[in-house]
Amino acid sequence: MKFVYSRYSIPEKEKNLERFLEIVPGFLSWSIIIGMAILSFASPVAAAVIMIAFILYWVLRLLYMNIFLTLSYLRLAIDKGTDWMKCVEDVDRRQMVSEGWFTQLEKKFLTGFTQDSNFKVRIKHKISALIRRGQLETLKKSGLFPPASKDIYHLVIITVILEPREVIEPGLVGIKKGSYPSARILVVIAMEDSASAEVKNDMEALQKQYNSDFLDCLVVTHPNNIEGEARVKGANASYAARRAAAYFAAREIPYENIIVSCFDADSVPRPDYFSCLTYHFMVTPGRTAASYQPIPVYHNNIWEVPSFARIIDIGTSFFQLIEATNPRKLVTFSSHSMSFKALVDVGYWPVDMISDDSAIFWKALIHYDGNYRAIPMYTTVSMDIATGGTFFKTFSNIYRQKRRWAWGVENFPIVIRAFIKNRRIPLYDRFSYSCKLLDAFVSWATWSFLLAFVSWLPALFAGKEFASTTVYYIAPRIQGAIFVLASFGVVVCMIISLRLLPKEKAGDDLSKRLVHVLEWFSIPFIVLFLSAIPALDAQTRLLFGRYMEFWVTEKSRNK
Amino acid sequence: MPLARRIIFYIFVVLYLVLCPILVLYTLGFILNPKEGEWVHTGLIHFSTIPEGANVYLGKSRFIHFTPTVIQELISGSYDIAIRHKGYKAWEHTVWLDAGKAIAFDNIMLVPNVWGSQALSQERFSQIHPLDGTDIMLVCKGPTLGECLVYDRKKEKAIPLLSYGSKFYDFQFDSVFTSKKSHSIVLYGGPIWGRKYLFLGLGNENEDGLEITDITKFFPARPVDIVWESGKDKVLFAVYQEYINRLDIKTGEFYPRYVENVAGYGLYGRRLYYLDKNKRIMRLSADAQKDERIFFRHWFEQQKNREIVFENYLIGKGGRGALYNEDSDYLLAWTRREIIANAQLLHKEGIDIEKCFWAKDGHRVIFKDGEMVYLLEIEPQGKNHVDWVVKVKKGTSVAYIQETGYLYYLSDNEGILSRILIAPPKKVSSQP
């Protein structure tokens, strides 16, 4: 469906609907918080009972998410040892063998790729082989075989505004040294014209230094003040993508064979990223109507930031790990990849929205009438944790970053308007996506408040009448028991976060690991101040029509 | 993975749908009776004691936990409760419990088998005059000023009121007027041919010693009472049967019949409130030029600090005093034989109730009835507990300091200044 994915340039009659839908998330969030507070005063019994029901729901959901967090982490651990280039070659070879290829491949998978003497490694490989087998069977059934890997190209767009060379370079080195042949990767450094001369010089120097390592390394400068564009990353990336499209067209490389990865300036993909991406692209039947979502981790400067900064971004990784287990409802986030053909078909990234990473998914979903999905990849892209030099500056920077992420709520009214118009998307899908979207933002903004404050308001406001009911005495005990149960979930998070820590940075430093475990006890405060409040802030701004300007996250490297 | 996810999702949904109503019902006091297979609505009783760690008995059965504790899942009905702790008298009570309700017995002050009395001095006294709201009290061995000492309870030290040979050393007094939180007192006494009113500023010692002012000229007749204006140690109101005079000792200003037709009076925030003959509550304006009638309940609801007390409000019924407690929102009033709080009769078997004090969170009262001091505990239900504390010297007063929980008195017969710890200051929270 042709749909203008924007809140601007829309028909007059839709502007009222757009405005109404912009109010919904913030209104709901504030209604829940204020409503529960008022209810605690007006009817403490009802409020206490509702809180019991909510806290039970919360802990069950926490345990539910823990299960999938654990499964996802195990999958990440299994796929970590996978030789993706070999997998790519195996998919390639189907062109060179007969119908019996899959049968032969199945036998090979069942025995595993390796005869490693290490039991754990053997098990991992066996499981990995089983997963590959399942993927290949799906590919076989679809009949939609991919191009040969030698015909597949990668486009990597790195957006830059004020990041110095030392922030960008590790990413380039990571791409260069990856397992995938870098000669088939086009790197485009998308720079803003408003960048300083120093940054511009740095990018030019990088281009000269690394140009021969890739298919090509271009520096594209995005002009300021293009009509219809806001000061957003999506505008910069789209401009660079258009230039890349011309590049590929000039060389007659079909867009169907190109995978584009849009990275932040500080993104450092794992060495196996592009081979993993290529494999997933090849085995996905609808490969040109798909995005490919890695697991974001924030390991670049993990030990150089205060503990609250560490914990909140580990939480982000956890969230993506959990989301990866539900590919039917997975939405793209941060640095990710997609089919270049799909990107061109939908008209590139939005040029007037801050949340381009999730917006492109919704844009594509609507364009393809619901036949678009995000494929989870169990490989990582490492980024920086926002920092600011001092404790308060770092706190402020993280707050603003989280608020910018929460500004993804700007997608809600646009998506709903599109769903109302696009009847080709199955009703069930439209309904479930809408509910998930709204639930995600409202729970993000409200849960911490309900748990931290509202749960004890009935007792605080307790008049004599409430204090003479069983609820007054039993409710806190039940809540306490539930919170104890929830602590098991926190323990699981502690364990997984320890396993996820980059070994090359923490090494065998026991004190660092111990400190990291203790940091998790501050999670209630961190989540409230650096997650819930920014989310509520963003929704409130949307509610009052105070649209946010794009704010660049400060990134630097210790020299 | 998607199939596994769906299965696990539905398991959790079922888990929530089953657990949630069970928890909600349990919170509301419902339990499942397995024998009859039906839900029974129950109540609970919460106990906390001072000191903690007491045994709780329901009928003859002992509860497994010690206080503070909650006994849940009690079917509605009557329960005989006993609380026992070594070294303390048993506390017994009968209570009726309704379904879905909770009864809280908060901070039950267990009465020791023997109250631990502490002598503060070896000297013998005949009278004690507490200055309520201050750290000092006047203790006297005899009727003259020279025989009086000022006892500072914080320093635990008594020093003579006057040095030997002072002007009023031999002044014999028979009435003492004090006011809450004021270090000043007014004494009435002297020889028959020259009765005097003396103003003593106990906190205003200068290099010449204690400040004593003869204020006899301000008293054309003997007042029923003397009260101090809030925050002004030297501005007094002399209360007569039907009028009030105002006098400023510092400036010498005297306002006879400052207010007339008075049935009761009280002071709050530097304003004088009084009951007129028609039992209407009136307030004197700041310039004392006019009287304003106020509506009692409305006015009280507006004020945050409701310390004003109409001490003579019960004068028609023989009221002897009144005291308000902000924590419990109780207004305590007493006559010779009765103690009432918020129109609820707490105790009716008094003989000569002179003084009452709030002790500990406003749920217990210490009162002096004749020579005996008792501790009355206001129960949420059923009969209030009254326990004997100590017998004091006949005709003497007592002082109770809420902040420390100590009762100060003169021991029976010997008149030794002593104290008993009745209510320890540590608060046991009633919050579950």
Characterization of this structure:
The complex is a heterodimer of chains A (559) and B (432). By secondary structure, chain A is of the alpha/beta class. Among the domains of chain A are: 62 residues; 205 residues, Spore Coat Polysaccharide Biosynthesis Protein SpsA, Chain A. Chain A is 59% helix and 9% strand. An eight-stranded mixed sheet of chain A has the order 3-2-1-4-7-6-8-5, sandwiched between helices. In chain A, helix 6 links the parallel strand 1 and strand 2. In chain A, helix 1 crosses helix 2 and helix 3 packs parallel to helix 9. Chain B is 8% helix and 49% strand. In chain B, strands 1, 2, 5 and 8 form a four-stranded mixed sheet that branches. In chain B, strands 4-3-6-7 form a four-stranded antiparallel sheet, with no helix packed on it. Chain B is elongated, with a radius of gyration of 28 Å. In chain B, 33% of the residues are buried. Chain B starts with a helix and ends in an 11-residue tail after the last strand.
In short:
The complex is a heterodimer of chains A (559) and B (432). Chain A is of the alpha/beta class. Chain A is built from 21 helices and 8 strands.
Helix-strand string of chain A: HHHHHEHEHEHEEHEHEHHEHHHHHHHHH
The CATH topology assignment of the domain at 151-300 and 331-385 in chain A is Spore Coat Polysaccharide Biosynthesis Protein SpsA, Chain A
Number of E strands of chain B: 36
What do we call the CATH homologous superfamily of the domain at 151-300 and 331-385 in chain A? Spore Coat Polysaccharide Biosynthesis Protein SpsA, Chain A
Poorly predicted regions of chain A are none
Q: Strand order across the biggest sheet of chain A?
A: 3-2-1-4-7-6-8-5
Largest beta-sheet characterization of chain B: 4 strands, mixed
Using only C-alpha atoms, the radius of gyration of chain A works out to 25 Å
Tally of DSSP β-strands of chain A: 8
CATH topology of the domain at 2-109 in chain B: Immunoglobulin-like
Q: What is the H level of CATH, i.e. the homologous superfamily of the domain at 2-109 in chain B? A: Immunoglobulins
For the termini of chain A, the CA-CA separation is 50 Å
CATH architecture tag of the domain at 2-109 in chain B: Sandwich
What do the pLDDT scores of chain A average to? 88
